[in-house]
């Protein structure tokens, strides 16, 4: 009989089976180290899927949360609060934006972005301008609208009829966009680095081309920076490294450092499309989430901190390259900042999940990005020692994989 009152089998007993979580249950952590119910130690290269930007149990975030929890938790959107206004000011002063809307997740942020684009087009150009261009293998969330915009039919095909007017074209293919865009297009939505689609960075000329096409056709350029935002690429937002400014930007994941929060950033010109009553959320911008996000943002949006992301990127790529020179399992190691994808050679296609499971047995938490890519998205402040330990464990897991 188990010594634990809660066990992994309880998931299968009580939870709707849309996930297949690991066989162990994490219970505590500090930095990029995690311990499970039995005290086993893991190095965390997953970062809660690029969420835990400052690692686990960060003391500054704890303090912000506890201080706010002793004052005010929730009021609803009939009232504003001090932490949300301070957070909005931070984001506006740090980005292209004039206005911000807060919600609870990346999917909600992308939903709001797409609704804003259609509403703006309706207000200014009439009913015929409502089409959206998105990209194959994109991922924008799980709501019906965002899963339709995502270019992965496996996530949407069982939920038809889907929202219409969405056209998918190949990523990094500007000619395909030119052949599709028209006076009916209200928006293009794009990830600067496709995350779930395999960790594939956009070409700078591609994003600049999208900017030019949107200007030419009076369409909004939406950057989905849910995964790339808040320091992940070594810049506060990835658009800053490309020198291409979107009209709307969605943000979530690392914004709260582990506490759920999302939002969109936009300019005064487009913010007018969502007046009173046009959109909303019960929990969005609540004092707890906003206080934690404000503290996380103040720590991450610092030149020295962001330079540390670039330094860690080099450490990761160097270590991964060394492992690959020994084992020859990856055909490509790519990414930006601390969002890195390792694509398996063709003879190992489809086995990224097997590798991540073996890594967990070795004491390493890693991600996949589709069936062929092992993905790492650790805390942005992960220590050198934790990187080295994690790489030793990945090396061991890959050696076991090859023996199988």
UniProtKB/TrEMBL annotation:
Q: Where does pyridoxal 5'-phosphate bind?
A: 106-107, 139, 224-227, 282
Report the pathway entry. Answer: Amino-acid biosynthesis; L-arginine biosynthesis; N(2)-acetyl-L-ornithine from L-glutamate: step 4/4
Entry's localization field: Cytoplasm
Enzyme nomenclature, EC number: 2.6.1.11
Reactions mediated catalytically: N(2)-acetyl-L-ornithine + 2-oxoglutarate = N-acetyl-L-glutamate 5-semialdehyde + L-glutamate
* Family annotation (Pfam families): Aminotran_3
Task: Report the principal subcellular site.
Answer: cytoplasm
A cellular-component GO term for this protein: cytoplasm
- Give residues annotated as binding N(2)-acetyl-L-ornithine: 142, 281
Source superkingdom: Bacteria
- Keyword terms of this UniProt record: Amino-acid biosynthesis, Aminotransferase, Arginine biosynthesis, Cytoplasm, Pyridoxal phosphate, Transferase
GO biological process assignments: L-arginine biosynthetic process
Q: Which GO terms describe its molecular function?
A: identical protein binding; N2-acetyl-L-ornithine:2-oxoglutarate 5-aminotransferase activity; pyridoxal phosphate binding
According to its UniProt record, which cofactors does this protein need? Answer: pyridoxal 5'-phosphate
Please give the InterPro entries that the UniProt record associates with this protein: Ac/SucOrn_transaminase_bac, AcOrn/SuccOrn_fam, Aminotrans_3, Aminotrans_3_PPA_site, Class-III_PLP-dep_AT, PyrdxlP-dep_Trfase, PyrdxlP-dep_Trfase_major, PyrdxlP-dep_Trfase_small
PANTHER family per UniProt: AMINOTRANSFERASE CLASS III, SUCCINYLORNITHINE TRANSAMINASE
**Family affiliation:** Belongs to the class-III pyridoxal-phosphate-dependent aminotransferase family. ArgD subfamily.
Also noted in the record is: May also have succinyldiaminopimelate aminotransferase activity, thus carrying out the corresponding step in lysine biosynthesis.
By what name is this protein known? Acetylornithine aminotransferase
């Amino acid at each position: 009989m188990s010594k634990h009152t809660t066990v992994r089998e309880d998931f299968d007993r009580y939870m709707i089976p849309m996930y297949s979580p690991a066989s162990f249950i994490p219970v505590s952590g500090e930095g990029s180290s995690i311990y499970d119910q039995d005290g086993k130690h893991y190095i965390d290269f997953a970062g809660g899927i690029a969420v835990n930007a400052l690692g686990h149990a960060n003391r500054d975030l704890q303090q912000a949360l506890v201080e706010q929890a002793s004052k005010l938790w929730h009021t609803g959107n009939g009232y504003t609060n001090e932490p949300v206004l301070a957070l909005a000011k931070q984001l506006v002063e740090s980005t292209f934006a004039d206005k911000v809307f807060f919600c609870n997740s990346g999917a909600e942020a992308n939903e709001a972005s797409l609704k804003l684009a259609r509403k703006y087009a309706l207000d200014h150009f009439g009913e015929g301008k409502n089409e959206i261009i998105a990209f194959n293998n994109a991922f924008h969330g799980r709501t019906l609208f965002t899963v339709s915009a995502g270019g992965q039919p496996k996530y949407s095909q069982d939920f038809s009829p889907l929202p219409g007017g969405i056209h998918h074209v190949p990523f990094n293919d500007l000619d395909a966009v030119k052949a599709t865009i028209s006076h009916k297009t209200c928006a293009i939505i794009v990830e600067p680095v496709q995350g779930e689609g395999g960790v594939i960075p956009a070409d700078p000329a591609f994003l600049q081309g999208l900017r030019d096409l949107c200007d030419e056709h009076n369409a909004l350029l939406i950057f989905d920076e849910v995964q790339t935002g808040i320091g992940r690429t070594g810049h506060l937002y990835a658009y800053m490294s490309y020198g291409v400014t979107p009209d709307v930007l969605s943000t979530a994941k690392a914004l709260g450092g582990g506490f759920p929060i999302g939002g969109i950033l936009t300019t005064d010109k487009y913010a007018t499309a969502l007046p009173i009553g046009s959109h909303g959320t019960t929990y969005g911008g609540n004092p707890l989430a906003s206080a934690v996000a404000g503290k996380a943002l103040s720590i991450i949006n610092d030149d020295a901190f962001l330079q540390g992301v670039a330094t860690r990127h080099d450490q990761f790529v160097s270590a991964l390259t060394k492992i690959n020179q020994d084992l020859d399992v990856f055909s490509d190691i790519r990414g930006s900042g601390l969002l890195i994808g390792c694509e398996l050679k063709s003879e190992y296609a489809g086995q990224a999940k097997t590798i991540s499971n073996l890594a967990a047995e070795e004491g390493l938490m890693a991600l996949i990005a589709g069936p062929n890519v092992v993905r790492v998205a650790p805390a942005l402040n992960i220590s050198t020692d934790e990187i080295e330990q994690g790489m030793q464990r990945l090396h061991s897991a890959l050696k076991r994989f090859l023996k199988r």
